[in-house]
Amino acid sequence: MNDFEKLFEDKIHEVLGSKDPAHDLSHVKRVVSVAKKLAIEEKAISEVVIPAAWLHDLVNLPKNHPDRKKASVLAADEALKFLSSVNYPEKYFEGIHHAICAHSFSAGITPLTPEAKIVQDADRLDGLGAIGLARLFSISTQMNTAFYDSNDPFAASRPLDDKLFAIDHIYIKLEKISKSMNTLSSQIEGARRFTFIEEFLKELKSEL
After folding, report:
1. How many helices (H) and strands (E) in the chain?
2. DSSP letter assigned to residue 110
3. pLDDT class of 59 with cuts at 50, 70, 90
4. What is the fold, at CATH topology level, of the domain defined by 1-110?
5. How far is CA 148 from CA 22, 77, 109, 140, 153, in A?
6. Separation in Å, CA 129 to CA 90, 93, 133, 135, 199
């Protein structure tokens, strides 16, 4: 697997580069690291989990792209093409394809295997906690989105809209994914990381 992982890393570095800090090689490495730990805990098939974690963002479309919801399926298709080109065992292809398809929040695909649940959890955990907030504001900057509504920062009397305000994304998505983890250890870690986000919001409210 180590020889394959070097190929996976090289491929992701080539495809993602460093243009988007929220979806770069460092993000993928964090997802892989967590996925490996979960695979051991859940006694999952590492030959499915590891390549799926490495290649889950092989196709990464901007948040405002019209085909954003299709990105994970496109990534899964490209992953199989790449894996075939490096002679990765085909018996794992179906599991890898499903795991990559199901990792995406926007795709809305239910993970049906332990491996898919692990990859989804690992990716979603990276959207929470300190690194999750860093990624949130990185994407906000790329999209020219305001950090918050200066008149009503926490949407007390307006509809939430994360296309306009970054903070709204916490309530629209991050709170939901913190409660959507599949594995027990991910549920615990997801709750811990969202508690950190809640503390951040308290501090922000105090400063404003």
Report:
1. 10, 0
2. P
3. confident
4. Cyclin A; domain 1 (1.10.472)
5. 19, 37, 30, 10, 5
6. 36, 32, 6, 10, 10
Contact present, 8 and 53 (Cβ < 8 Å): no
CA 33 – CA 169 distance, rounded (Å): 26
Q: Supply φ then ψ for residue 103, to 5 degrees.
A: -70, -25
In 3D space, the residue among 136, 153, 166 whose CA is nearest the CA of residue 206 turns out to be 153
List the one residue out of 95, 125, 162 whose CA is nearest residue 27: 125
Is residue 121 over pLDDT 90?
yes
Residue type, 170: I
**Which of 178, 180, 183 is CA-nearest to residue 37?**
183
pLDDT of res. 68: 66
- Beta-carbon count within 10 A of 6 CB: 10
Residue 12, pLDDT above cutoff 70: yes
**What's the DSSP call for residue 10?**
H
- Distance, in Å, from the CA atom of 9 to the CA atom of 58, rounded to the nearest integer, reads 11
How is the chain split into domains, by residue range? 1-110, 127-208
CATH of domain 127-208: 1.10.3210.50
**pTM for this model (two decimals):** 0.93
Short-list 48, 40, 26, CA closest to 116? 48
